Amino acid sequence: MPRCALVVLGLLLTGASKLVAQEPAGEDVVKMEAFNVTAYHGKIPIIDGFTGNDYEGANEVVFSFAKSFNKLLLGYHKKLVTDEIKHMQFRIKLGKDFDREMAQFTAAFGFGTFTLDESTWLRRERAIISRLIKEPFFKIKSLVAWDLDRLNKIAPNKPESKYASDIRFNPAMAKWERRITDRWDVFFFNNPNNRNSSFATDKTQGLNLDTHRGFHFIERGLPVQVPPNAFKEVSLTYPIFYSDDHTGEKEVTRLQQTFVANLHFIYDPFSWMARRDTRFRGGFSRDCLDHIKDQRIYVDDREWFDQVFSRFLSDVITIKLQGADEIYALHMLSKRLSESPRSLGLGLDLLNWNKGEKREAINKSEADARISPASPAGFRYVMIDAYQRLGEPLIDKIRTRLLAQKEARQKINGQTMLTQLIAELSGLPYSEFAQRAKATQEAHLARHKIERPIPPPPTTHSPSKD
Known about the structure:
There is one protein chain. By secondary structure, the chain is α/β, with parallel strands linked by helices. The chain has 2 domains: 3-272, no CATH class; 285-446, no CATH class. Helix content is 44%, strand content 13%. Strands 3-4-5-6-8 form a 5-stranded antiparallel β-sheet. The protein has a 3-stranded parallel β-sheet with strand order 1-2-7. A hairpin with an 8-residue loop joins strand 4 and strand 5 (198-208). The radius of gyration is 27 Å and the shape is elongated. 30% of the residues are buried. The model is unreliable at 1-34 and 457-466 (pLDDT under 50).
């Protein structure tokens, strides 16, 4: 079980995850409203997986886990809200800092005023937070309890039950596995007075509850103006295995830990955009590029130069505010996600367990990071390397040269200018510097390579040998 699940479980069960509004990180930051979720209360129904009726067994592990179920759900829900608000406050403050730094940069180059449009920042996240504070996305309508000893007797066959679609016997592991699949629907009218102005989308996802591998498919992304009430409630069942051979508090704790770890992957409404480790990152590269394109710069290769130069300014600010590791880590994370965009949790599992389920998705192995200095994307890292070695004199040289060309109203080749300045300041031929930069930057990226984790074996128990 991941250590994070153990820590979260302790917080949730001890009540240590009290909901506290965070100190403002700047003007117009997200602020905590009164938290008023009362959905997680009452007795959770327990269904016998074999019969589909109310559970009438006497296994104390089943009852003890069910008793803690609502407390775990509410505690996780509160933690989700507080963690996201802290994250949003941090990102908004970082955005304001970036805006200030970029404005100073561009002013020094004689460019027009740079400003970021804050009105669209985290609009979708704000809607989701508002919904979470008042009402949950997920409601688990029942626990489905499966007698593992009975399952092992009929393995690899499935029982005749409507709930059996969410379990399977894995012959390779000689173990039973569980899953959850669900669909999130979003629907609203852009104009309440116009019935033809509706927007609808959905997100389907699934998770193997024992290996923590799964899938998610988003029909289309959310618009900026999505209202909190557009998200429809997700109602599902949660299967558990129990056995007469595994009883006591240790087994209850194992079920609780697994449940919290599963919630981390399946109950993440912010994954409509991207997971927290990717959202609102990247140094506002699109805004910087648009701003540079609007300036009068005397180079004759504007398409190449604008792309490289705007990214360079963005990278310098990111290094100042967060360090170069932010660039390397985000590059490798984005690379991983682009190679397997449908994966959920620790890896892709399309969970095609039943007849008629034929989900398909790309799942490529991650290749080592390679830099080609001849391409704009590769030249970006040559510029990063040059800045790390040469510092502010590099920026001063670029500024002086561009201002001189503007004064003379004579165009130069931007790529040639940058390579010449790097050679002058480093005292090396550019080709030699570029090869050294390539090796150095590839090594930095390699430190942040995300290895595909090997999923843990299912936490269920092997069939008896009898």
